[in-house]
Automatic annotation (TrEMBL):
Domain of life: Eukaryota
A GO BP annotation: Rab protein signal transduction
Subcellular location(s) per record: Endomembrane system
Organism, as annotated: Scleropages formosus
Listed GO CC annotations: endomembrane system
Annotated gene: zgc:101559
GO molecular function: GTP binding; GTPase activity
Keyword Ligase annotated: no
Protein name: Zgc:101559
């Protein structure tokens, strides 16, 4: 069953017809848009839904409900003068909501974002299980994967040092971001997570990771230049 777009303009819940239809046309050029499917994975209550709302709608979702199955949101962005569409799949963290949908999460995926809560160590400790699930679904090694620590606005409650998360990211050769979906000042940083992936996917260029220091935020950059941040909703 599919939900119609709500007042916030988001389209939610997996729709078999929508997922298999022909790519839409760019209104300006008449050419088919490039569409990239990005899935967001992690334990319940780490802020996956809030991250996707912040990116797609530019706002913080104050009272999110647990995702059942999968929520589906879109945002078009301009990369190097060309519009591409990002399909963001916000997945359920609870196993009872996931079983029937897992194969749909990973089918034809272009990038994977693994999210943990910096105030809850167990959400980082469970990350290998999520990474293993991704591997079991035969996601190709070339599909970009990144690790994101959310809720950095709650520094007094932090349980996960940046250095610990960085070691895990390094062990899997993942870039690491730390951010806050709630803090309005972090909006551009949340955008950068998704836009960096969009730039990498569109241009098929490798990423490099700037080495972090303890307590710092990790940024991604293209090997030759920083990814552009020109975007339109």
């Amino acid at each position: 069953m599919a939900h119609e777009p709500g007042d916030d303009g988001f389209v939610t819940v997996y729709n078999r017809k929508t997922a298999s239809r022909e790519p839409p046309l760019d209104d300006d050029t008449g050419l088919q848009l490039q569409i990239f499917k990005i899935i967001v994975i992690g334990d319940s209550n780490v802020g996956k839904t809030c991250l996707t709302y912040r990116f797609c709608g530019g706002k913080f979702l104050k009272n999110p409900e647990a995702t059942i199955g999968v929520d589906f949101r879109e945002r078009s962005v301009v990369i190097d003068g060309e519009t591409v569409k990002l399909q963001i799949w916000d997945t359920a963290g609870q196993e009872r909501f996931r079983k029937s949908m897992v194969e749909h999460y990973y089918r034809n995926v272009h990038a994977v974002i693994f999210v943990y809560d910096v105030t809850k160590l167990s959400t980082l400790e469970s990350m290998p299980e999520w990474i293993e699930e991704c591997a079991r679904q035969c996601v190709p090694p070339a599909v970009p994967r990144i690790l994101v620590g959310n809720k950095c606005d709650l520094q007094a409650r932090r349980e996960v040092p940046t250095s610990l998360a960085q070691r895990m990211a390094d062990s899997y050769n993942f870039p690491l971001f730390e951010t806050s979906a709630k803090d309005p000042g972090e909006k551009e940083h949340v955008d950068a997570i998704f836009l960096t992936l969009a730039y990498r996917l569109k241009n098929h260029k490798p990423l490099r990771l700037k080495q972090p220091s303890e307590g710092s935020t990790v940024h991604l950059a293209d090997e030759q230049e920083r990814s552009p941040n020109h975007c339109t909703c």
